[in-house]
Write a structure and sequence with these properties.
The protein is of the alpha+beta class and 516 residues long. The protein contains 15 helices and 18 strands. The strands form three sheets. Strands 7, 10, 11, 12, 13, 14, 15, 16, 17 and 18 form a ten-stranded mixed sheet that branches. Helix 8 packs antiparallel against helix 10 and helix 12 runs antiparallel to helix 14.
């Protein structure tokens, strides 16, 4: 039996690592608002520096925070006093060491950050009024765009879309699944490997004296309070996101009983959607931390429970018209949509090197958890890699969703890779049915193994995804969006991560083999 508040390890045991004491609720965001960041603020996007400077002065902003994304998908930041927020900043930028975040070698690490004025938002988590910007990274000497800057890669993908003549713009709608736990601890060393999570919603607490309102395994989908203990938390996150310029469609408890949540945002233009991924993850983690909780977007943090994905809804527009709509097509899909789908599925393995770039990604992509592991498309079938929602059958909402991705992805690279695969499919007029990608409208997991083997499988490991990337990269090089150096750097790091995980004895192996 497990101790109260513990989580089973894959081998059935429990870690003895103690939990840190719970944190007290932090009211600093409320005090910051009283100091000059009003609740209910509309997003602060500026067309030029003078507008931004005027806002800083009128709102008594004290700090300007400059956030930027490294190649692997992590945000970093540097903060300057508002007195340093002057026009020269847009020309010279703020210097930083690119070698420390994986951008460059130590011998040539100098780089600069320049804020994108269209991304401004008042950061609600700071003690004093703070205006945040997402930045572009530049070479320190030439001020040229750094070729490995993730936002620049996404911009190049969109520029290539327009240059190809296929469409004018792409729209994206990521779904966010994540777990919120009461506590987490982990330890890895030569003689120890353990982790432990605590969740008041977990049914492993049912034998302890408590409220009795736990959620059974796989029983969390749209759970209602008091079983759902996180509804106020999700509402707080949703309100903060709206104030920061990221609208929310809805939120709910997800399938995973011990604290799995979902927040979905509307479909947005490409760069806004990619920026929104970073903002949603930041706000969710910060809001959880303030309440003494911890949030994770890790794809598979719990053995035997539902994993967390980040499905991408997507569509193309040309001249303001949705290219993915055709009333006479399968699921109201157009020829362009089906060709895009064919390109995405044909290049699916290489794409997943960027949309599923962690070893943990492939612990989620296993049969039995609505996990999309087969390269097929379908109408409303959640076991397919690509689902055309049955309700998305009008000119204004026609689209499909690519279901394998998860939030360990760098959103800028993940979106760019998907878009390039889709463009390739349209330019080559690929037919998904002729290529054996469906449609498949029944549950693939119910098929006999022989029949399931007839369907192209997507990668089931990080190593397999890297092999697919190395064998199929030409579509990524189109338009100079990616280049060989970036792809090789990416593959080298990810192969190293895979090797480091495989080289470590697993706790379940000790249980299985210690006595042999």
């Amino acid at each position: 039996m497990l101790a109260a508040g513990s989580c089973a390890l894959p081998g059935g045991g429990a870690s003895d690592v103690p939990f840190p004491p719970p944190k007290r609720y932090d009211d600093r965001p409320r005090r910051a608002r009283r100091a000059g960041a009003p609740k209910g603020e509309t997003p602060v996007m500026f067309s030029d520096f003078s507008e931004a400077k005027s806002f800083v002065e009128k709102r008594s902003v004290e700090m300007v925070d400059l956030k930027f994304c490294d190649l692997w998908g992590r945000w970093h930041h540097v903060t300057i006093p508002s007195s340093g927020f002057e026009p020269v900043l847009m020309e010279k930028g703020v210097a930083f060491d690119g070698s420390s975040v994986g951008f460059k070698s130590v011998s040539s690490g100098d780089m600069v950050l320049v804020p994108d004025l269209g991304t401004g938002f008042l950061d609600p988590f700071w003690e004093v009024p703070t205006l945040s910007f997402i930045c572009t990274t530049l070479e320190a000497d030439t001020r040229a765009l750094f070729p490995f800057d993730p936002r620049s890669i996404a911009r190049r993908a969109e520029e290539f879309l327009r240059a190809s003549g296929v469409a004018d713009e792409s729209h994206w709608g990521p779904e966010f699944e994540f777990y919120v736990f009461d506590g987490v601890s982990y330890e890895n060393g030569m003689n120890v490997a353990s982790y432990r999570v605590q969740s008041s919603e977990g049914d492993w607490n049912s034998h302890e004296l408590g409220s009795g309102y736990t959620i059974p395994k796989h029983g969390g989908y749209h759970a209602i309070p008091p079983q759902d203990r996180l509804f106020n938390f999700r509402t707080r996150v949703s309100k903060l996101l709206a104030e920061m310029g990221v609208p929310v469609k809805y939120h709910h408890h997800e399938v995973g009983g011990p604290g799995q949540c979902e927040i979905e945002i509307p479909i947005l233009p490409m760069m806004k959607a990619a920026d929104a991924v970073m903002i949603v993850k930041y706000v969710t983690r910060m809001a959880a931390s303030q309440l003494g909780l911890t949030a994770t977007f890790m794809p598979k943090p719990l053995y035997g429970e539902a994993g967390s994905g980040m499905h991408f809804h997507q569509r193309l527009l040309k001249g303001g018209k949705n290219l993915f709509y055709d009333a006479a097509g399968y699921g109201a899909s157009s020829f362009e949509e089906r060709a895009y789908i064919a390109g995405l599925l044909q290049h699916g393995g290489a794409v997943m090197a960027f949309t599923n770039p962690s070893t943990n990604s492939y612990r989620r992509l296993v049969p039995g958890y609505e996990a999309p592991i087969s390269a097929v498309f379908s109408l409303g079938n959640r076991s397919a890699a690509i689902r055309i929602p049955k309700y998305a059958n009008r000119p204004d909402n026609a689209r499909f969703e690519f279901r394998p991705p998860d939030a360990t992805a760098n959103p800028y690279l993940a979106i760019a890779a998907q878009l390039l695969a889709g463009i390739d499919g349209i330019r080559r007029e690929l037919d998904p049915t002729a290529l054996g990608f469906g449609p498949v409208d029944d549950d693939i997991f119910s098929w006999a193994p022989e029949r399931r083997a007839s369907v192209k499988a997507l990668p089931t490991s990080l190593e397999a995804a890297m092999e697919a990337l190395e064998a199929d990269r030409a579509f990524l090089l189109e338009g100079g969006v990616f280049n060989d150096d970036l792809i090789e750097r990416w593959a080298k790091k990810k192969r190293n991560e895979d090797r480091e995980v495989r080289n470590r004895p697993h706790p379940y192996e000790i249980e299985l083999y210690y006595g042999l």
